[in-house]
Amino acid sequence: MRQIYSEVVEFRGSHYDYGMMQGNALKESITLHNRRGQWKSKRPRFGIDPAEAQAAFNEYAPNLWEELKGLEDSLELPIDEVLRDFGGYRIDAPPSGCSIVSGEDFLVRNYDFHPQTYEGRFCLFQPQEGNAIIGPSQRILGRMDGMNEHGLVMGYNFMHRKNPGDGFVCYMIGRIILESCSSIEEAVALVKDIPHRGSFSYVVTDKSGATKVIEATCVMQRLVRIILKSSSMKTAII
Predict the structure, then answer these.
(1) Up-side HSE of residue 58: CA atoms within 13 Å toward CB?
(2) CA distance 124 to 107
(3) Are strands 211-219 and 133-138 parallel, antiparallel or unpaired?
(4) CA distances (Å), 63 to each of 22, 36, 156, 194, 206, in order?
(5) According to the model, what pLDDT value does residue 59 have?
(6) pLDDT digits (tens, 9 = 90+) for 63-95
(7) Is the pLDDT of residue 186 over 90?
(8) Calpha distance 130→90 (Å, rounded)
């Protein structure tokens, strides 16, 4: 079995300062080296429009844009490179074989993907604005799963690659859910409204003990439906 490790990262303060701290830590890291190296062997199959990305962040998660600006300033990189590697907007999401099981007081997620994508960063962040969150990072800013101060827990699973749209990818949506929502109902409303790059299911549970699977499907570059499944697998289309 391959050995892995995880660095525990704790921070209290503004999103911009959090971005600066992470950028300074990344400057000489293997993570940043790997991010740059992957584009030497393959060409991105997506486009980045910084103005469009900023407008989307300003509407749904303006504090995260400040975190990106902190990364930009500390890494001294162009904003399009920061968005390409860490922004999570209009980026192809990789396939996943992950699985999740939940009960009244737990949610367990199996991250079934290649170790090269594992960053080894388990983050605790208490922002000046927004919910305090805990969980492993994905592409530095994103969260593959986690919990916030209200007891809302989130994990996501891959669905399919058909007809990707313009919008946020799974790990950035996961971060926005945890940082801006306090209940299952708020998470459902956000996933219904936010623009999606790809089709993923977001499994959420909260202190009520209920579990919902929010299946967000993109067709013709638009989110067309979200299916809610309770832990008893009863389904409603909304």
Answers:
(1) 6
(2) 18
(3) unpaired
(4) 15, 25, 22, 16, 24
(5) 92
(6) 999 999 999 999 998 998 888 888 888 655 445
(7) yes
(8) 24
- Of 190, 71, 191, residue with least CA distance to 139: 71
Tokens 């800013």 belong to 141
CA distance 15 to 67: 5
Instruction: Using alpha carbons, select from 185, 106, 107 the residue that is nearest to residue 144.
Output: 107
The encoded tokens of residue 208 equal: 């009520």
What is the per-residue pLDDT for 41? 59
* Exposure of 25 in the CB half-sphere (CA atoms within 13 A): 13
Helices of type H across 165-223 = 170-180, 184-193
How high is the pLDDT of residue 115? 62
Which pair of structure tokens corresponds to residue 60?
Answer: 């749904």
| Percent of the chain with pLDDT strictly greater than 70 | 79
Specify whether the CB–CB gap between 56 and 9 falls below 8 A.
no
Joined tokens for residue 72: 């930009």
* Gap between the Cα atoms of 215 and 202, Å rounded: 6
User: What is the C-alpha separation between 144 and 29, in angstroms, rounded?
Assistant: 21
CA distances from 2 to 5, 94, 113, 115 (A): 10, 22, 13, 9
Q: pTM for the full model? A: 0.59
- 145 conformational bin, left if phi > 0, alpha if psi -120 to 50, beta if neither: beta
Residue 86 per-residue DSSP state: I
What does the pLDDT look like over 152-179, one tens digit per residue? 999 988 877 777 778 898 999 999 999 9
